[in-house]
Design a protein that fits this description.
By secondary structure, this protein is α/β, with parallel strands linked by helices. It has eleven helices and 16 strands. The strands form four sheets. Strands 4-5-6-9-11-10 form a six-stranded mixed sheet, covered by helices on one side. The protein has a five-stranded mixed sheet with strand order 3-2-1-12-13, with helices on one face. Helix 1 packs antiparallel against helix 9. It starts with 8 loop residues before the first helix and ends with a helix.
Length: 495
């Protein structure tokens, strides 16, 4: 009699292996390049004259805010360390994918390090900064510019902040305020936390911006001098803190949740003050404003009147590149600058979204892990049993136990007159199952009892053997995805 098995170990295990290999390769590497390649430079929105140079391409990154051991107070040290590794790995993947767009310049909108403002020894700060440079490695030496965020230099004067925060920032990232000229555009980078601090002093004195004597080298002084010296050409303003806007203003469809609310607290302020915002708009008159700090995407158009003329200036708050900043889809911004003087469209920008890393863990890896374990559990259970279909006769083979098995099956299929099953027959041969269980139904037709037997289930392995087979299958399937994850992670960290 031919014995049919519902599953074969090699087929099921290999199928799960292939599934996990494809899934891990895609979600650990391929999906990042896929999203980056789909986000193209918005050059098509610009009218570039034939005799002009190609548009300048700027990659804008906001709030990477790399973690350290102080980022999650109260969280166990081991869990904090694991979080740090996972976030660093995600940042490296997103950064490497973003660099594939080959920008001409890179701009960071502040909050490079989560705790750059906190007290630390020079050695500890250097190690922290070195981690940032390792994550955002650039083999092509692309010009890179930074503006300070409140996590870099602090905001206000709390005793918990390091008095060396400003000097450390300037020695590692560059000046607090700066102007960069590219493609006939002036890109003005301001120290927004410094502006907030000086604005509090001005407001406390009861003086207007026209009456206020700015601190030498401060943000207000820098902005006033730029406004006086700048003669022509479009200007783009970069500020870590978004400008003021009416409460509850809409941020557009790419916003994940809520809007930007006014608020202030220990070491932060959600938006610049109304007077500060009007001062910047009036003195600089930018064509575009790019800001950070909020972590989520927001587009808002500022409307104000100057000299009887109504002006509208668009501000884009760029998404954080980090998966740890309370958003599901991290991102960055691509900005194209039109070098053609007098062109109607001097710039064009587009947001780029990176994969939902938390969604990959919760919606892909965990469900697939549970499904794989259930499949292997069922597979091991079915492999430990043999089904003998009814109505088939045993074929002779070399095993002496075969006639005994055939006889037992026949008795099981026929049954006794009262429908009872025969007792199991022991045998010294490994081919004879320890016991059998039949699937049968008894019913009455024309006053006579009829018995229908479907098949016989033969239990072939002990619980220990069953557990051993199951764990071996789990090991054989898990080896490949774990190896791929480790290799991709190692390659990402070492690249």
């Amino acid at each position: 009699m031919t014995i049919f098995r519902f599953t074969r170990r090699g087929l099921v295990v290999n199928a799960l292996r292939m599934l996990w290999i494809v899934v891990t390769l895609w979600y650990e590497s391929g999906i990042f390049s896929y999203h980056a390649k789909r986000c193209l430079w918005p050059d098509s929105s610009l009218k570039v004259y034939a005799d002009s140079a190609s548009p300048a391409h700027l990659l804008v990154v906001a709030d990477p805010q790399i973690l350290d051991h102080r980022s999650y107070p109260g969280r166990p040290a081991l869990l904090t360390y694991i979080s740090q590794i996972l976030v660093d790995l995600n940042l490296r993947k997103s950064w490497r994918a973003a660099l594939n767009s080959r920008p001409d310049a890179i701009f960071f909108l502040g909050d490079m390090m989560d705790n750059g403002r906190m007290p630390a020894s020079d050695k500890e700060y250097e190690q922290y900064y070195h981690r940032f440079k390792k994550i955002f490695k650039d083999k092509n030496n692309i010009p890179t510019y930074f503006i300070p965020g409140n996590h870099d230099t602090g905001l206000g004067t709390p005793s918990m902040f390091s008095p060396a925060a400003h000097s450390r920032y300037e020695s590692h990232f560059g000046p607090l305020n700066n102007v960069v000229n590219m493609a006939n555009h002036s890109i003005i980078l301001i120290d927004a936390p410094g502006l907030v601090e000086e604005d509090h002093q001005r407001h406390g004195s009861g003086r207007s911006y026209a009456e206020w004597k700015p601190a030498s080298g401060g943000t207000i002084d820098f902005v006033k001098r730029f406004g006086q010296e700048h003669k022509s050409g479009p200007t783009i303003l970069l500020s870590h803190i978004p400008l003021s806007r009416p409460e509850g203003s809409d941020c557009g469809p790419l916003r994940e949740k809520g809007t930007i609310h006014r608020g202030v607290g220990l070491g932060y302020q959600n938006t610049l003050g109304k007077d500060s915002s009007l001062f910047l708009l009036d003195a600089i008159r930018p064509s575009l404003i790019l800001s950070g700090d909020d972590h989520d995407y927001c587009v808002f158009t500022h409307k104000f009147e100057r000299g009887g003329t109504n002006m509208q200036i668009r501000e884009v708050t760029v998404k954080s590149l980090s998966m740890a900043m309370g958003i599901r889809r991290p991102g960055y911004q691509l900005l194209s600058l039109n070098p053609s003087p007098g062109s109607d469209a001097s710039y064009a920008d587009t947001p780029c979204l990176m994969p939902d890393q938390l969604g990959i863990y919760l919606s892909v890896y965990i469900p697939l892990l549970i499904l794989s374990l259930l499949v292997l559990l069922l597979h091991s259970a079915l492999r430990s049993r043999t089904w003998l279909p009814n109505g088939m006769s045993h074929r002779k083979n070399r095993s002496q136990s075969q006639p005994k098995l055939s006889s037992l099956v026949q008795k099981t299929l026929d049954g006794d007159a009262d429908g009872k099953m025969p007792l199991p027959v022991s045998s010294s041969s490994s081919e004879v199952p320890p016991y059998h269980r039949g699937l049968s139904w008894t019913f009455t037709v024309d006053g006579r009892r009829r018995r229908f037997s479907c098949c016989v289930l033969s239990i072939r392995s002990s619980p220990a053997r069953f557990a051993s087979d199951f764990l071996r299958d789990v090991r054989d399937v898990a080896f490949y995805p774990i190896s791929i994850i480790l290799l991709v992670s190692f390659w990402t960290f070492m690249d």
